[in-house]
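User: Just a sanity check before I run the rest of the batch. Below are the structure tokens for the first item. I only need the designed sequence back.
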């Protein structure tokens, strides 16, 4: 049974479903309009128990999920939403042992999802141009006990990446299209690329750059997550939803000699005709 540890995150849920993420420090007190709660009353207890503040308000202490952590981290930038982060982890094929580059670190929201996916043997190489953003991302990752799995680098990625032969690269920067040569140099053969772009014109520029580069399986996707009201007798979608977070662009690096595998019938016939004309010359 998992127990609450000092300095590790705990999700407090109120009876009216408000959510607070706290890190209990020995001897300390949590102050809020729900009342005061001594951290020592939490530390050492199993998750899933109810605690009471000095005002008599009941709070359920739960172990936060990765999605809770992403949504509650301190931010200085827009972060990648959990729905998009989850799809990225799957499509970039991140699991224990994988090496992945991301830029920029931003607030470290996605860094945390990537680190949890590739730990303990894998690594996240997280590049950021602005020192203040890097400091915040580093702090967020350290507080979650994930620093052994992340290498932070302060650099404009126009200068390129230190790593090569990595399994995946993710770009969450403006003008991602400009950095495709650097991405190509860092990726392994068959390695995965993804980017999040908020506008359609950025997507257009990026797909054009990928088509010019050594990339196949280029896909543009969007995750629309619609919650439903779980009322059995009146089951229906919730009134509101987050309609747009960003477009996700995926591609796979491939040696141009092997493009044949990604051609449809007509493209293969044209390529064969071209090759035979060339050999007759
Ligand atoms: C939207 S934020 C990234 C948010 C992050 N994915 C998260 O989930 O917390 C974009 C970040 O990229 C950084 N950035 C923009 N252009 C960059 C570049 N050329 N090289 C490195 N970092 C860059 C910005 O400073 C900013 O912190």
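Assistant: Here's the designed sequence for the first item:
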């Amino acid at each position: 049974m998992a127990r609450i540890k000092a300095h590790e995150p705990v999700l407090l849920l109120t009876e009216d479903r408000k959510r607070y993420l706290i890190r209990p420090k020995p001897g300390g007190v949590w102050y809020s309009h729900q009342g005061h709660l001594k951290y020592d009353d939490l530390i050492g207890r199993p998750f899933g128990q109810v605690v009471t503040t000095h005002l008599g308000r009941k709070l359920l202490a739960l172990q936060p999920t990765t999605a809770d952590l992403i949504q509650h981290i301190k931010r200085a930038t827009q972060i990648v939403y959990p729905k998009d982060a989850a799809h990225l982890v799957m499509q970039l094929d991140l699991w224990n042992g994988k090496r992945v580059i991301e830029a920029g670190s931003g607030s470290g929201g996605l860094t945390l999802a990537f680190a949890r996916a590739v730990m303990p043997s894998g690594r996240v190489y997280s590049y950021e141009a602005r020192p203040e953003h890097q400091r915040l991302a580093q702090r967020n990752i350290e507080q979650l006990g994930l620093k052994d799995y992340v290498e932070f680098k302060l650099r404009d990625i126009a200068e390129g990446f230190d790593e090569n032969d990595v399994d995946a690269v993710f770009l969450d920067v403006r003008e991602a299209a400009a950095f495709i040569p650097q991405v190509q140099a860092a990726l392994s053969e068959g390695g995965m690329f993804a980017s999040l772009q908020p506008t359609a014109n950025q997507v257009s520029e990026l797909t054009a750059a990928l088509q010019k580069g050594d990339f196949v399986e280029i896909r543009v996707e969007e995750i629309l997550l619609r919650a439903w009201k779980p009322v059995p007798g009146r089951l229906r979608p919730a009134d509101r939803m987050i309609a747009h977070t960003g477009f996700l662009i995926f591609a796979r690096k491939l040696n141009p000699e092997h493009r044949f595998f990604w051609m449809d019938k007509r493209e293969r016939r044209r390529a064969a005709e071209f090759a035979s004309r060339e050999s007759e010359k």
